[in-house]
Amino acid sequence: MRRAEALKKAATLIEALPWLAGFHGATVVIKYGGNAMTEEHLREKFAEDVVFLRYAGLRPVVVHGGGPQINTQLDRLGIESTFTAGLRVTTPEAMQVVRMVLVGQVNRDVVGLINRHGPFAIGMSGEDAHLFTAVRKHAVVDGVSVDIGQVGEIVNVEAGAVRALLDDGRIPVISSVARSDDGTVYNVNADTAAAALAVALQASKLIVLTDVEGLYRDWRPGAGDGENEVVDRLSATELEKLLPTLSSGMVPKMEACLTAVRGGVPQAHVLDGRVPHSVLLEIFTDEGVGTMVLPDAPRAVAVPKPVTRRLTATAQLKGNDE
Ligand SMILES: Nc1ncnc2c1ncn2[C@@H]1O[C@H](COP(=O)(O)OP(=O)(O)O)[C@@H](O)[C@H]1O
Ligand SMILES: CC(=O)N[C@@H](CCC(=O)OP(=O)(O)O)C(=O)O
Predict the structure, then answer these.
(1) Whether 266 contacts 205, CB under 8 Å
(2) Annotation-wise, does 67 bind a ligand?
(3) Distances in Å between the alpha carbon of 109 and those of 55, 96, 158, 218, 283?
(4) Which of 11, 118, 165, 319 is the most buried (most CB within 10 A)?
(5) CB-based contacts of 204: which residues, under 8 Å, 6+ apart?
(6) Which residues pair with 235 in a beta bridge?
(7) Residue 121: CB within 6 Å of ligand 2?
(8) Distance, CA 210 to ligand 1 centroid (Å)?
(9) CA–CA dist 302, 149 (Å, integer)
(10) Conformational region of residue 214, where left means phi above 0, alpha means psi within -120 to 50, and beta covers everything else
(11) Structural domains present in the chain
């Protein structure tokens, strides 16, 4: 290897040093969206990242989605499916398919994928060990409450089993299916489930992987990358104001980030799952990627990430540099 090239590689490794030190032992909840898991080479990179985190001394937890995979199966079976406010209207018939695909197919696939790189991943459904208890959720559209079927709102998280797995050096991989006290099974949006778990575990970070660069300021469907402006960083209050203007899949995603930071998680991120190794880039480099949501008054926590190189949220919204 040429000397210049070797020095560059060493510099990259050294750049990770403060982050490795700061995040040692930290719990990071990663939401792996169904749209982010469609390409094989990216799936491999994701699995490598998660195992890298584990070997680097962090405690990664994966909560996976599977919306496109559920759509495929519903189509095959001729079951119609619609979304309201980013949530699938879930009939009892659709619920059976949701559970089968998330727990029986996607969970197994993600566990297998991670275990190719190290024997750590263990699959769980939100129904296991009372992990997620839910009640029936209604969507609110134009201020009106709308019934969306067997969609759950998590009211309790029993994270003991997940903690035990983490203490044992495992990587829990969790499906967003929940049960109510009366035994009804509910479909929970995976962003929402990841946020509830991040709060229960008091994680150091929530990372939501998706198929766009981050939160776009004025999202225009169909516009390519670079044509929409990514909001680099924003505070909980700024996000709260923005929420009513958001649409489709971004609604549960950004609500999840808000829930996480309001619930004591110091940082929540929406990252582009199409960028290889975006999880490592976010955690171990100075730049950070995607959209970062911060609490209004960040607590004094052992998260070393300097934020000075990013635009402030206010400057972001004005479109100016600091
Ligand atoms: N403001 C916005 N910024 C970025 N994406 C947006 C925005 N509003 C709506 N979207 C849509 O939300 C989608 C992400 O949500 P979703 O399809 O549920 O992803 P996932 O399967 O990763 O959970 C994007 O692909 C985009 O089509
Ligand atoms: C209620 C609700 O909408 N549940 C989602 C659960 C899966 C999910 O969230 O998957 P992604 O993260 O890939 O979107 C659904 O049925 O599609």
Answers:
(1) yes
(2) yes
(3) 21, 19, 25, 35, 25
(4) 165
(5) 23, 26, 27, 28, 265, 266, 267, 301, 302, 303
(6) 294
(7) no
(8) 7
(9) 42
(10) left
(11) 3-318 (3.40.1160.10)
Q: Would you say 191 and 206 are in contact if contact means Cβ atoms under 8 Å apart?
A: no
What are the backbone angles phi and psi of residue 137, rounded to the nearest 5°?
-105, 145
54-81 residue pLDDT tens: 999 999 999 999 999 999 999 999 999 9
Looking up tokens 């109510």, which residue turns up?
180
Tell me how far CA of residue 121 lies from CA of 69, 79, 115, 279, in angstroms.
Answer: 21, 32, 6, 17
3-state secondary structure of 106: helix
Q: Give the pair of three-digit tokens for residue 182.
A: 């009366």
d(CA 101, CA 157) in angstroms, rounded, equals 22
- The answer to whether the CB of 126 is under 6 A from ligand 1 is no
Distance, in Å, from the CA atom of 308 to the CA atom of 287, rounded to the nearest integer, reads 10
Tokens 């960040």, residue located:
298
Q: What is the pTM of this model?
A: 0.90
| Pocket flag, ligand 1, residue 250 (CB < 6 Å) | yes
Q: pLDDT tens across 106-163, in order?
A: 999 999 999 999 999 999 999 999 999 999 999 888 889 999 999 999 999 999 999 9
